[in-house]
Amino acid sequence: MGVDSKPWAWNKTDYNYDCWETPDDEFLSVFLRWKNKGYSRALDLGCGTGRHSIFLAQNGFTVDAFDLSLDGLQSFEEKIQDKNFNITIKAGDMLDLPYGRDAFDCVLAFHAIHHTDMVGLKKTIKNIYDVLKPEGEVFLTLTSKEGDSWKKHANNRIDNNTLIKTEGPEVDVPHTYLSYEEARELLTDFQLIKIQQIIRYFPNQNKKHSHFFVLLRK
Length: 218
Ligand SMILES: C[S@@+](CC[C@H](N)C(=O)[O-])C[C@H]1O[C@@H](n2cnc3c(N)ncnc32)[C@H](O)[C@@H]1O
What we know:
Blueprint: H1 25-36, E1 41-45, H2 51-58, E2 62-67, H3 70-80, E3 87-91, E4 104-109, H4 118-131, E5 132-144, H5 148-152, E6 162-164, E7 174-178, H6 180-186, E8 191-202, E9 207-217
The protein binds S-adenosylmethionine.
The site of S-adenosylmethionine (SAM) has 20 residues, from helix 2.
C-alpha cells in the first residue's frame, strides 16, 4: 500500500502555462531519433495538456495520451477538437495502465512519473516495460535530490525519497526524488542508452530544478 495518487490541478491559475505549451528542447533530439527509426505508435504518459502528444501527432505518430488530471485533459481536448490528429486520450492512473503488452514503439514520460512514492515509481516503470515492444524505447525524466525542492520541502518528507507538497498548486501531490545511484538501480530491467542530469535555473524565482533525462531500450 503506497501513497495516494493525486493529479495536477491544471485549472489553477498560478501555473506558468507558457512553459507547458511547446515541446521540451531535450525531447526534440529524441523525437528525431524515433522518427528515423520508423517508430509510429507512441504513449505519452502523464501527458498534461498535450504539448508532446500534439507535436508527435503533427509529425505522423499515432499517439495514446494518458493522465490522471481531468481538467488537464479537458484543456488538451479543447486544443485538438477541430484537428484531425491520431490521438486517443484516456484518463487514469499510471499505476494501472489500460494498454496491452508490447503495444507501443516508444513511451514518453516527461516530468510525470515522479508523482508517486518509490513503490509507485517501481510499479510505473514495470508498467512502461510491459506496454513497450521489444527493442522499443522510453524517454523519461526523474527528479534529482540535488535540486532545491528536496531540501526546501524537507519537513514534508514521508520517507527517504518522497515528499508531499503542502502549499501552492501542487498541494497534496506526491514527489519522489532520487540520487544518481537510485535512478540507475530503478532502471536495471532496461538497456540504458543515455542518462543526463540537467540543472535548470529559474533566477526570477530564485531556485533550481535538477532532473535525470533518461533514454532506455527494452
Ligand atoms: C509536470 S506535468 C507534465 C505534463 C506533460 N508531461 C508535459 O511535459 O507537458 C505532470 C503530469 O503528471 C500527471 N500525473 C500525476 N500523477 C499521475 C498519475 N498517478 N497517473 C497519471 N498521470 C499523473 C499530472 O496530472 C500532470 O498532468
